[in-house]
Amino acid sequence: MSHIARIENLHAGYGRAEVLFGIDMRVRRGAVTTLIGRNGMGKSTTIRCLMGLLTPREGTIEIAGNAMNGAPPYKVAQAGLGLVPEGRQVFPSLSVVENLRATARQRADGWTVERIFEAFPRLAERKGNYGFQLSGGEQQMLAIGRALMTNPELLVLDEATEGLAPLIRAEIWSMLDRLKQTGLSILLVDKNLEELARISDQHYVIEKGRIVWSGDAAAFSANRELVESFLHL
Amino acid sequence: MDRGLVIGGVIFAFLLAMPVLLPIVGAEYLTGLLIKAMLLAIAAISLDLIIGHGGMVSLGHAAFIGVGAYTTAIGLQSGIEEIFVLLAITLGATGAIALVTGILALRTSGVYFLMITLAFGQMIYFTLTSLAAYGGDDGLTLWSLATLFGSDIVQDGRGLFFFVFAALLLTWIGVWRVSQSRFGRVLRAARDNPQRAEVMGYPVARYQLIAYVIAACIAGVSGLLLVQYAEFVSPSIAAWQRSGDLIVAIVLGGLGSRNGALLGAFFIVIMEEFLSSFLHEWRLIYGPLLVLLVLFAKGGLNDLLQPTSREAS
Prior knowledge:
The complex is a heterodimer. Chain A has helices spanning 43-50, 73-78, 96-102, 113-119, 121-125, 136-148, 166-181, 193-199, 217-222, 224-231, and strands spanning 3-14, 17-28, 32-36, 58-63, 66-67, 81-84, 154-158, 185-189, 202-207, 210-216. Chain A is 36% helix and 27% strand. Chain A has a domain at 1-79 and 193-233: Rossmann fold. Chain A has a six-stranded mixed β-sheet with strand order 6-7-8-3-9-10, with helices on both faces. Chain A has a four-stranded antiparallel β-sheet with strand order 2-1-4-5, covered by helices on one side. Chain A contains ten helices and ten strands. Chain B is mostly helical. Chain B has one domain (3-17, 29-305): ABC transporter involved in vitamin B12 uptake, BtuC, CATH 1.10.3470. Chain B contains 13 helices and two strands; from the N terminus they run αααααβααααβαααα. The longest helix of chain B has 27 residues, at 204-230.
């Protein structure tokens, strides 16, 4: 199976408002895929559908070859998806260690609290603190660590570097580089085109609920101006 | 060493010494007061599992005390006297009712959960008042009590004290261990953000239902022991105001802490006894005292004794 996730003709919305109009996407195993677009274009709605948080009106979502349309979020997660949500959303009244252990799924060669602390030494220093006592950057590291502790086959990051200090952002991009090297499949939603161009293998640009451009890293570099025009950057 | 464990250890050591110390100081009559406090503490600790750790505020918890009490009373009336047989029946009855009401109640959250548990609690309360064969509104005086392997050792005095003490100790240890296990961590994660816990791969509703049933079963046990202590049962023990008392106990003691429910329950029973002994309108003092405690000790009595409890270990 060359694709870990496949989205076909995805239609979704909220109430009477239609947000997605037939999204088609493939997320290749072992590759970094990006979903790029301005605010309000449907990026987060696509992620919500993928994670089972929103039931699609039409279309197909497959994870590791299994149809997941309408499956509850916990089944989607058990199928191998780990989400780092927009706004971090760490559990505020759980300590750093508890956040990591609360929803962990053990695997023989998988992620452990010790490995997360090696990857993010700053979290090790704050391991006794509660989620609400962490800075924004630390919360983001914890959110990534928490998702990794579920030992996902596909890590989904929704605006993972949004609103963070440059140094923290650099640390997170460096972590993503290392994760890519381990062969982990990653789906990134972000606006930092420089970093996305460097790290990603496949790109999708979304506008008004439709994929308006897609291509690999080479095509992305060759069509940078076109992509930026969609983003109005 | 964990300060919460030390405080809990001191409380239990103090309780264990009471049957020896009270006769020496001529205050044996206080044994009953301590049994009452321990029974309230058992029910409060069970409620703290779902409120403090699970974030599910229930106004129907006392109904499970009522179910446990009436199951025991009806069992005794029917000639079943062995306490462990009564315990098994009580656990079965409260567990089954909690399972059914929990499946329905947990389809809601927040204030709607509060209202639906209140509704179920009132349904149970009015069912108990309608049991004419068992005293209806007036309640039922029991002429025989439970025995322990045929012995009447658990029927009054020290024997009952130690039996209730053992039940409280087991509840205190058991609920804390559950709350610190992975099950408890998922429960607390779901309290903070149920959707996020679900996205991490855990069927939140199932975890909450299990916690709800465990809490109901423990409340049922406190009902069983209450019957054994009071030798009487009436629907008033299942009234929603009793659930309110339990919520006051755990908020006062400190939500979701190791000793909060224990401290809150003892504080309430002792203050009621102390204040009502010299003032008829004792609630005029008790009310403002509660307000002051809630305002100035936001983590409850537990935080006054253990001010560092907000730093996780």
